[in-house]
Design goal:
By secondary structure, this protein is mostly beta strands. Among the domains are: 93 residues, Sandwich (Immunoglobulin-like), CATH 2.60.40.1120; 168 residues. The chain has 7 helices and 48 strands. The strands form 5 sheets. The chain has a 26-stranded antiparallel β-barrel. Strands 8-9-14-15-13 form a 5-stranded mixed sheet, with no helix packed on it. The chain has a 4-stranded antiparallel sheet with strand order 3-2-5-6, with no helix packed on it.
Amino acid sequence: MKKFLLLCFILCSLFPFAQEQCIYRAMLLDSLNLPVYDASITAFDENDNSAGYTFSDNQGEFKLEMPCGKSYELEIEHLSYEPLVHKVNLDKSKREKIILNQSTVKLQDVIAKGRVPIKMKGDTIEYDADSFKTGEEEDLEDILKKLPGIQVENGKVYYQGKEINSIKVEGREIFGGNTKLLTKNLPSDAVDKIQLNKKFKSNPFANSLQDDEQPELNITLKEDKKNLIFGNITVGGDADQHYDLQEKLFRFSRKTDATLISDFNTFGKEVFDNEDYFQFLGGISEFTEEGGSMALRNSMRNVMFGAGEKATSMKNHLGALHLGYEPNNKMNVTAFALATVNDLNYKSTTERIYPAFTQRDENTNSQNIFSFISRLKIDYNVSPKANIKYRVNFNQQNADNISAITSFLNEDKTPIQFRNSKNKRENSHLLQRLNYIRKVGINDNFGLYLTHSYQKEAPDLRLNSTDALFPTFFDFNPTNDGYILNQKEDLNAHTLQGLAIYNHLITNLSNLRIKLGANYSTQNLENEILDRNQPIVNDFTPADMDFNFTELYADATYTKKFKKLKVDVGAGLHRYKTENKGNRTHSSREITRVLPHLEAEYAFSMSKSLNLNYKQTYEIPQIRELTDAYNIDNYYSIFRGNPDLKETKFHQVDLSYRVFNAFSFFNLWMNASYTKKINNIRMEGLFQDLIQFTTPFNSDMPEDTWAARLYGSKRFSKVYSLKLNATASHSIFASRSNQVNLENTSTLYSATLTNTFKIRKKLEINAGLSYLQNNYKNNFLENEFINLNPFLKSAWVISDKFLFQSEYTFNNQYSNGDNINRNHDLMASLRFKPAKRVYAYLTAGNLLNNNSIVSNSYNDFYTVVNTRETLGRYIIGSLKVKF
């Protein structure tokens, strides 16, 4: 935590301390002495540092508050007037009149030069896209990265630490609401304005004191892109093995909109990943966003997704279609479907470092993953006081993962075992949601939310080994092909959820919210382990488990506003019931708990606030954790559930502070949190030879986690701006290894410092440093991992015809002080514009031909170092046509 506080101090030291402030007021007039309104005014001090930004009101007046005793230049711009640089010597507060001359430039030139970069309209910030472009932008994401107050990480968009989950185009949802697909595919030249609604409410009838406010973006298109098909087609490749084929088509009209995109590439360009897939799963997570509760832990395993992975051989295919129809102002219908196919082949080496020995596996891997995602959404406004929303999702994923594994012990060069592993998985998910929201009286509203979810997971595992598999647990019979293990698993889950919410505005300063909810889930788990094709029967296999979960709850929240302070205080009465009925065990449990919660917000001003949140929650163990039967994870790990597991209690406190000033281009968000877990579910490991047996247990030791995060950005001048993104966390928790109780501590620091230089909209340079330190310690292990990565990115608009871009990273990885990986990564591209809507690209990746990447991780029992072969140097030429 000391290092994190040091980072905070460094950031704060970059910004000037408070000085005596003077107020500069002025009135803008034209040659006829009439006021000029909606003009933009940007102030720079004598060191060319940004000192403020504003625009004139309807009387032509504006005000800037700046440090006294300095000289400033005011850049004044307006669509109909000549740009003016006005010098001010601000020795004291003063008021002036400034005359602007009527523009004699052609209208199209004025539009290009006289745009207002940022406008404030109540709770909405409107960014003018062209004001932030420098010429290298390809898609919407490239513009969003340059907007003050907006943060983009791995395709996700954030405002003041909150993820923006709704990004619309012309007020409509496209791509099924997936923000990443939109930001990475909407062409930048189609974007006119970006409107940030800081207080979007999903409930259109919500009153002023309801707490469902979330940031939302709306993208408005340029007039020449409306009612026409626009987009681009890209065809590329090399003379040997690589291809790059893309097509993006968009059409927006008054009643209909349609989007069609496809992508095929062989060099690891990421199009869609795990997080995108989970966003479409919806279900419990979306239900909790409406104010619902679900204490049951997730029983579905993580899906595999190959897009964007580093491999020596890759083929990534994607196709997506979106259709939207708005026949009138009452109804809106959208449909979306996406399919992906990913083929990966690569070699890797995995070292598992135990306290007493090291096991090294050399692997040859092949993956084939098919995913299909679809969504239909209907919104209907029954009346001005009521609306209905219906949504249905269907998702399917089939994945095959085949590995040939050769195992070595310690430094031996003679293999101890040969294995083949084939993991085949099929996942299906059907989700339906029906929402009814109604305004009651003048200020009250009622919401009813119903959800049905069906999930099916069927993983099959086949292991073939030269040596006996899990000899302590099973007695396999050898064959001519060695020992063969098959495992067939089938998990089915039906979940029903209902939630009713009533908001009553008692006065303009107080509100009462009542919630009633119910969750019911019924699940069945069957698991069979076979010796070749012969089922194995013993005390812990096969498994046939039925699990039922019921949660009933009622919650009341009272909201009171005291001038700048708003407080929400409430409590919920929750009743949980679980029943486990298996072929060997039968148990049930019922508990009733009162869970208090508190939220407080103090708004110092429109741009500065402090938030405090506290809540208590419970987590109920899921069916796999409760099933007293063997489950094979992989060739070295076997798991068995614990039917005696109990619930985990959470205490969570969260404090955040934000400052955002668009006019001084300053943004700061800080967050600190503390979580205490009581009876948390942890893993116990038992090791015999090279076999790991794990089972869950409730830890007697309360667990503590402290975490902090900081994000700050500041534009200091026309040329220079800075961003800092830093996190820190410290956890203390328990585990067991070979019946020895372990006390574990985990500490994580990470920071990325980015310096951005923009020179006359021709050259942009991002230079910075990423730092990650991960420390882990228990009774037997002590590890320190450090990643130190300086980076340099540049975009140079050489002329109207040429754009050059490059990206360089110096990767340094350390394990316990030893450098385990050091390499230089360099990518570059050249774009040539031979015609108005035609672009030719020459793209080169991995120019320094690094042939492997190294990653490290750890758990309670061992340390993992993974070395993976990656795609070598490639050079691709492509041609893009825009229309």
